[in-house]
Automatic annotation (TrEMBL):
Its EC number is 2.3.1.-. It comes from the Bacteria. SUPFAM superfamilies: Acyl-CoA N-acyltransferases (Nat), SCP-like. InterPro entries: Acetyltransf_17, Acetyltransferase_Eis, Acyl_CoA_acyltransferase, Eis_dom, GNAT_dom, SCP2_sterol-bd_dom_sf. PANTHER family: N-ACETYLTRANSFERASE EIS (PTHR37817:SF1). This is GNAT family N-acetyltransferase. Keywords: Acyltransferase, Transferase.
Amino acid sequence: MEIRKIKKSEKNQMVTLRDYCFSKKYNNAKLLDYKYWTQISECIGLFDGDKLGGQLIILPLRMNLYGRDCRFGGIGFVGLYPEYRSGGYMKKIIIKSLETMRENGQLLSILGPFSISYYRKMGWEILYDVVSYEVNMSDFPRFDKILNLHFERFDFNNIDISNVKEIHNRAVQKNNGWMYRTEDWWKRLESREPDSMFAVFEKGYLRYNKEGTSFIINDFVFLDSETEKNLYNFISLHRSNFFVVKGVTSIDSSMSYRLSNTQAIRSLGNNVMARIVDVEKYISFLEKKIDSPLYIKVTDQLCSWNNKIFLLDKDNIEVVDILNIEDQDSWVKVDIATLSASILGYFKMNKMESLDLIRGSQSGKLLYEKLIPKDTTIMFEHF
């Protein structure tokens, strides 16, 4: 057995493996989209001779991370034929993928897990709390004063959506964790959701689908509060046509607040996980400063380059070799999953302490807390 990058000439085998491992085969536009992304992405495979037995795709993507443009790997289409689902092959594929992302300068890895516990063992942790909602149209928030409801309505087929793309990337710069959508990504959305409709205002847009008597929100994007209210009012104007509104948001979003006083069905989930690929480079990228030395011992079962003791001092970080970290004044010990979740804003210090996810001196914990951002990192894309 061999774990390695899949060559372009071998990528035709990925379609057969994907169709076997997932519930529905891809056809037409979805199949073309899948083949395209296998060609432009790094793909890691398990090979039994010339036969592909397992795979993982690393999509090359970019996001706004606390005001900086961050490259990350979106993990998708992870699968093994049943006869290879023992012997730790998937773990080996994941290790190879992390090595590849590090080589490519991708600081983070983000995925939608089939099992939170499995990926947590591999070093990924929850990125944010997802709220799925279903609201009776009659209860959906609307504002008494109809504001400027001047908008354009169209779909993917009959108009250039360049204004939508421009609004979206402006919104990315205001929302931590949002992903920059390239032309390739918009084509992917079109192939997966070809019936999407758009309502576009000067400073925001709505992308939605109609399914029977349900109004499905895919994108709810605004640059100012007036446009946000216009989007709510636009949806409410459909109350004669639809019974319910469905969508996904985060527990920290303004929409979650708007829905709190309505008769809404809301379910909390965790369908996005993230992992730091290279601790030293990631912390350097953040430019997060502390005012005195802090020693952080990171345990990472998969990445030897992270399984080290790091010394942070003001705006510098370096790997150090000391016998006992506890001999230092300010120190903490965390695993890579906890480090990832905290420095991305999901875990706060009180939560880490209550779950026994961090050990350290009191001064060390106080310094580490300065590395934890106030804002969570929120992403609604699917890989």
